[in-house]
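Incident log, support desk, overnight shift.

02:14 A customer reports that sequence design results differ from what the structure should imply. Their input is reproduced verbatim below. On-call engineer (initials T.W.) acknowledged and began investigating.
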């Protein structure tokens, strides 16, 4: 698969349940060659934090040039010496074809 590095727009954000989200991104070059289950590396900020991009599995692609990323939100809460630390991470569900 060819490699692309593009700046893109989030065209839709859907909260499917309390823990499940789906992002739709405008990425015609990637949508043309990608298949569900392949990965894209996503960086959400312009600065150096976070330093590395995060891998997300492609949930769906369409002929209009959009890719969809489906993920589950996990929030862990720890109490450590009177400080509350919140850690949020993403877990991707497996792609299921209907």
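02:41 Re-run completed on a clean worker. Output:
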């Amino acid at each position: 698969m060819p490699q692309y590095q593009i700046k893109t727009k989030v065209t839709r954000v859907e909260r499917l349940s309390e823990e499940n989200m789906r992002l739709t991104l405008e990425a015609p070059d990637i949508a043309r060659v990608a298949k569900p289950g392949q990965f894209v590396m996503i960086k959400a900020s312009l600065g150096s934090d976070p330093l590395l991009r995060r891998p997300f599995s492609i949930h769906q692609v369409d002929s209009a040039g959009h890719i969809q990323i489906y993920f589950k939100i996990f929030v862990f809460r720890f109490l450590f010496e009177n400080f509350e630390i919140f850690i949020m991470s993403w877990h991707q569900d497996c792609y299921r074809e209907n």
